[in-house]
Structure formats: C-alpha cells, structure tokens
C-alpha cells in the first residue's frame, strides 16, 4: 500500500491509543533494512513506522559525503516506492534531531514538504522529531513551538522529548544524573502550556522514565513506567482532559521486560522505537552465514570460492529475513500484530 497519508497516520495513532497497543518504529539505514521492516510488518499483519536518524541519513547519502538531508530524501523516496508492493501501511519519520542538526537535517526536510504541500501533494515525512533534551527545557519548548507551527501547516506530526534518555544514539550522548532520566509532572505541564493539547498542532511526547539508549540487560536500568500514568493523570486533572491526554513515545527500550513494555503502552505509549535489537538480528545472521560458508565466501588456498555464496544477495536475504523475524516479535510485544489498515 502507499505510504500513509497524514489522515491515515493520525488514524493509526488514534487506533493504537483506543485499542491499547503501540506501533513499533524501526530505524533503518539501507534499502535492505527498509525491505526487512516491510517484510516483517507484512508477516505480522501490522502497520508501522519506519524512521531514520541523522547517522542513518548520512549513510543513505553515501559514507564519504555529509549530506544528511539528501540521504533522508533518498530514504523517503525509496521507501515510498517499494512500500506500494506490501499490503500494510507505514508512516515515515525522522528520529532524534539535536539542535546542531536542525539546519542540515529536519528543517530542510520540512521545507521540502512545504513545497510538496503547496503543489497539492502530501508531506514527504509524516512526522519529525525535535530532540531538545540536551538544552534547557525553556529553550527546548521555544524551538518546539516554532517547529509545531510548521508541521501543523503541512499536516505532519512533531515529536518532542521532555526529559533525558541516557546512553548514546548516533553520537547523541547523555550522561546526566539519575534524576534527569525521569520526566516530572511539572516538566510535562510546561510542555502542555507551550504546545497545547492538539489545538496548536498534533505532537507526540517522549517522556523519560529511566530509559537508556543502546544495549543493557533487564534489571540494569530502573524503568518506572508507572510514572507515565502519574503524569497522564496529573495532566488530565489540571487541564480538564479525558484520560491519557498525551500521545507518548517509548525510547531506549532494549532489554525492557514484556511487563514494562505492556505497562508503558497501557499508560499511553503509541509508538516505541526499535533499533539496537534489529541491528543485532541483521548482523548476527550475517556472521552466522559467513562462518557456515567461509570456504565459499573466501578464496582459500588458491581456490575460487563460490559465487553463489558470496553474492551479496545471498547473505542479504538471510539478514533481511532474520531482521524481519525481530520485527514480527516487536509487533507481538506491542500488540500491533494483526492491526493493519489493508
């Protein structure tokens, strides 16, 4: 199916919140990983979100150049074309954009979508993330306000981060105090005062409850998904809103238990980012293939190897299928499996 229209994307998120599930949002960095996500979502019968970071966009543009906006547009155009062949709906999103990447990543992409909308077409991306977690909250929200005006005008959704996700993703590293890893109700109230609750434009909020990007084992990070309910309840009471006023995003979920994920979803998470686990699934399968077929992929002792074994499509299919299996697992964990708009 074609990439989600803005209205379809909004309906997806509404459906997730009403139905008590969340959509997985997969980071990709190549045509192979895009295809793996589409394969996995199709096998699961799930709609979903495909996203690209600054580093992923750099890689799409070519490793020897720095043209991340070009890379992001190339990602979007490829995904838009190949997604037509799959019976599920996906939305395109740009992930973590810190302040120093606004001018060469998200802002040029919003400008490109503004031109598309002027011409009567849909925006290129259905949502964009502004990651202001490394700047003071007032500055974070001031920039978010300006961006929200532009995303609203193109019928796209903004994602903001209120709090700090620890660890590192694509060079964005946070090592703040443990207290900084937990968003407070006061922080969330400041965000709502600045951004509204939809009337100024739709946005998703990545509130932090102990999240850490990267690899960790269960128990090494103290997640508090119950904090999300406390904040949602506090906002609903203050602003006279119904339950779960915010559309929440779960970052840094690798190593989370099924119950931690389920509780976060119950408390309003509609999107959960998946990156580390799918990266490992993709690469681990390649490592296994190379070990099992070493005499075919290497020209040992003057032999010629086996072209069918070292053809990149041979191990590429293995990697895509392994990553697709991890995609299916994510949809099952989040409850989106079986929820497609086909």
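Q: What amino acid sequence fits the structure above?
A:
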């Amino acid at each position: 199916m074609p990439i989600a229209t803005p209205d379809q994307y909004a309906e997806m998120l509404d459906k997730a919140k009403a139905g008590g599930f969340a959509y997985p949002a997969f980071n990709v960095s190549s045509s192979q990983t895009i295809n793996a996500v589409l394969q996995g979502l199709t096998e699961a019968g799930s709609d979903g979100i495909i996203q690209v970071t600054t580093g992923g966009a750099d890689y799409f543009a070519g490793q020897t150049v720095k043209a991340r906006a070009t890379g992001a547009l190339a990602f979007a155009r490829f995904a838009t074309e190949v997604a037509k062949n799959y019976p599920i709906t996906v939305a395109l999103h740009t992930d973590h954009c810190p302040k120093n990447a606004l001018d060469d990543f998200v802002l040029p992409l919003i400008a490109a979508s503004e031109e598309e909308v002027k011409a009567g077409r849909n925006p290129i991306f259905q949502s964009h993330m502004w990651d202001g977690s490394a700047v003071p909250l007032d500055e974070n929200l001031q920039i978010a306000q300006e961006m929200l005006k532009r995303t609203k005008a193109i019928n796209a959704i903004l994602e903001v981060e209120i709090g700090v996700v620890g660890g590192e993703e694509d060079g964005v590293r946070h090592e703040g105090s443990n207290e900084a890893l937990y968003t407070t109700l006061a922080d969330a109230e400041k965000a709502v005062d600045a951004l509204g609750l939809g009337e100024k434009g739709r946005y998703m909020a990545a509130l932090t409850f102990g999240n850490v990007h990267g690899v960790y084992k269960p128990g090494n990070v103290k997640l508090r998904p119950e904090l999300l309910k406390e904040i949602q309840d506090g906002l609903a009471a203050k602003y006279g809103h119904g339950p779960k006023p915010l559309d929440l995003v779960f970052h840094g979920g690798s190593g989370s238990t099924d119950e931690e994920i389920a509780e976060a979803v119950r408390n309003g998470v509609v999107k959960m980012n998946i990156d580390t686990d799918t990266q490992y699934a993709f690469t681990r399968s390649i490592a296994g293939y190379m070990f099992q077929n070493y005499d075919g992929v290497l020209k040992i002792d003057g032999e010629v190897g086996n072209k069918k074994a070292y053809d990149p499509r041979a191990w590429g299919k293995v990697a895509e299928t392994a990553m697709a299996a991890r995609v299916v697992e994510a949809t099952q964990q989040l409850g989106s499996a079986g929820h497609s708009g086909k």
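Q: And what stands out in the fold?
A: The beta strands are 23-27, 48-52, 90-94, 127-130, 157-162, 167-169, 172-174, 203-207, 247-250, 269-274.
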